Amino acid sequence: MGVNISAVAYLNAAPFIYGLQRSPLAESATLSLDVPAVGAQKLLSGQADIALTPVAAIPQSSDFKIVTGYCIGATGEVASVAIFACEPLEQLHTIYLDAHSRTSVALVQVLAREYWCISPQFKPLGSCDYMEQAESGAGYLLIGDKTFAARRRFTCVYDLAQAWIASTGKPFVFAAWVARRDVPAATIGLLSDALRLGVNHIGEVCREVQPRYPDVDVASYLTRNISYPLDAAKREGMALFISKLPAKSGAVNPQTS
Prior knowledge:
Strand content: 15-25%
CATH superfamily of the largest domain: Periplasmic binding protein-like II
Number of helices: 9
CATH topology of the largest domain: D-Maltodextrin-Binding Protein, domain 2
Oligomer: single chain
Largest sheet: 6 strands, mixed
Order of helices and strands: EHEHEEEEHEEHEHEHHHEH
Distance between the termini: 25 Å
Shape: globular
CATH class of the largest domain: Alpha Beta
CATH architecture of the largest domain: 3-Layer(aba) Sandwich
């Protein structure tokens, strides 16, 4: 019986997709590419057995566990999760939130409260009109590939990973691989092998995807901004972040999963 895997349809997951498409899993697994929030929903609904899941959306249930030693993380500027604005942060009265990742939405609120000490209104992000005419006094939390164009549009950019690290001294994890506990250990092993293959061949990944991103230095982004190993330091950072979330939004313990 095949396994359903949801990965993220962003450039930051390109090494994972590269590995999965060249893995023995490719013969039996169904791979879908989704925005992070959709992948989390698929995991909860049973449409996915394994998903690259935003940390703030990892189910708080014994039916799920964090698997593999890989993640979408950052040990410095992440570049693709940021608040974009035309005014300084302290002048913003509203921040519009990209709903594609609960982790980034939660992180910006933690940072506003505990690090930036600002109290803007938080509103859902609607259309892409901000690219034509940004609202005065408003910031826009954006994630993923759309941020590359936004960096050319806005004069003020506030990188969320960079702010978290400056505030806590710990790296940040945006998404981790989560599986249902009934997924066989052999399948998890194949998944880990596939992810390792992609991460170990980032040079080839960059050459393959660079033509699709003519205005982005793909190699710099994938090797300097994104950090893939889910090591002890990242698990500590993830645990600290989860501890700052409302109880109903908390994820499984990254130290024990």
